[in-house]
Specification:
3 strands; three-stranded antiparallel beta sheet; 57% helix; single chain; 16 helices; Cytochrome p450-Terp, domain 2; binds acetyl coenzyme *A; mainly alpha; Citrate Synthase, domain 1; binds oxaloacetate ion
Length: 369
């Protein structure tokens, strides 16, 4: 008997992140502590090395990320030729795929070369996402500054001005919260891809494609669309009730693994409350809370990481179409950690399908059909 959606199936071993009794850890450290105290660079180091960095190691990583964040001129030219109405996730998938062709070590499959490629991908993906928005707006692409942190650089490259402390801290916490999540769909597809010993870039491109769907990372953009469609607090009840009657899924709710709540959601809810208040967008938060109350009451479902991230990112002035690409910027840390783990102890993924098609029958020549 097959298991629909592989629910509950243990498909691999991993020492990167765990979800046990509703508690999420990265390398054994509770996400609650990481969200409160760690920077994204510390989390990145932790995911890749199984240890938190020393001050020197952290300084070096920040420097490496800023230096490796430059894009090849050919890739910048390519980005300018892509149709501006292409979805940002499609652009991201295409550009990351193109980056492989300009990686000096693209053919080197040694562990050390793959580590260096992971760093280049992580550094460049932030520049690419910021550049996607700027190219769409007809603005010049900006390069990262060596004195800036990863989140600071992302906001700088996106908006062309030095970001405020609160914006940097909020984005950084969101990146920490999205960095890894055991064997989620996009991480699984990255591992399946490199399980054939395909290139690390192929693994990340597979993962970006998988993340884009609304049942996974694409939900944050879909949540924002819903908030905009609802528009006013007094419209929430009728909008949600109508959607439920039509058996539509409400984006940002439910989870395959968490049944008693997603531990990341409380941080995003708090950030959403604070940032919407600060930016005069309280209505968005009020609409979100009302949806949350109705869904809990009617369906017993709780918000996942994507629900309150929508109003959080919106309050940071980020365009809706960049929400899922930003998720990809963060999750690249987890994808690459999983890819390196897969290479280090690889076995091809090749499950079976239970056949439910036609019974054995004869080939009929075309003139007899
Ligand atoms: C980063 C992330 O990927 S987090 C997830 C982001 N995705 C979303 O927010 C999309 C909305 N949520 C969903 O579609 C689901 O909850 C998933 C895909 C996340 C998890 O789904 P699964 O574990 O496969 O549950 P499944 O989709 O089978 O749903 C089980 C039941 O709950 C219902 N349900 C689940 N989520 C929702 C929802 N968001 N809204 C309404 N009903 C829902 C289903 O309709 C189904 O009902 P039924 O048994 O009456 O048919
Ligand atoms: O684990 C999952 O299925 C989805 C999820 O929450 C994530 O990828 O962050």
């Amino acid at each position: 008997m097959s298991t629909a959606g592989l629910e509950g199936v243990v498909a691999t071993h991993s020492g990167i992140s765990s979800i046990i009794d509703g508690v999420l850890t990265y390398r054994g450290i509770n996400i609650d502590d990481l969200a409160k105290f760690a920077s994204f660079e510390e989390v990145l180091y932790l995911l890749w090395n199984d240890e938190l960095p020393t001050k020197e190691e952290l300084t070096q990583l920040k420097k490496d990320l800023a230096e490796q964040g430059l894009l090849p001129n050919e890739v910048i030219s390519l980005m300018k030729t892509l149709p501006k109405n292409t979805h940002s996730m499609a652009m991201l998938r295409t550009v990351v795929s193109a980056l492989e062709m300009y990686d000096p070590e693209s053919f080197d499959m040694s562990f050390e070369a793959n580590r260096r490629k992971a760093l280049r991908i992580q550094a460049k993906i932030a520049t690419v996402v910021a550049a996607i928005q700027r190219v769409k707006e007809g603005k010049e692409i900006l390069a990262p500054k060596t004195e800036f942190s990863f989140s600071q650089n992302f906001l700088y490259m996106l908006n062309g001005e030095e970001p405020e402390e609160l914006a940097i801290k909020s984005l950084d916490t969101a990146l920490v919260l999205h960095a890894d999540h055991e064997l989620n769909a996009s991480t699984f597809s990255a591992r399946v891809t490199v399980g054939t010993l395909a290139n690390i870039y192929a693994g990340v491109v597979s993962a970006i494609g998988t993340l884009s769907g609304p049942l996974h990372g694409g939900a944050n953009e879909a949540v924002m669309k819903m908030l905009e469609e609802i528009g006013e607090v007094e419209n929430v009840e009728s909008y949600i009730n109508e959607a439920l009657v039509k058996k539509k899924k409400i984006m940002g709710f439910g989870h395959r693994v968490y049944k008693t709540g997603d531990p990341r959601a409380k941080f995003l809810k708090k950030m959403s409350k604070e940032l919407t208040a600060l930016k005069g967008k309280e209505k968005l938060y009020q609409i979100s809370v009302k949806i949350d109350e109705i869904i809990q009451k009617e369906k017993g479902l709780l918000p996942n990481v994507d629900f309150y991230s929508a109003s959080t990112y919106h309050s940071l002035g980020i365009a809706r179409e960049l929400f899922t690409p930003i998720f990809a910027v963060s999750r690249t840390s987890g994808w690459t950690a999983h890819i390196l783990e897969q290479y280090a102890n690889n076995r091809l993924f090749r499950p079976r399908a239970e056949y439910i098609g036609s019974q054995l029958r004869k080939y009929v020549p075309i003139e007899d059909r």
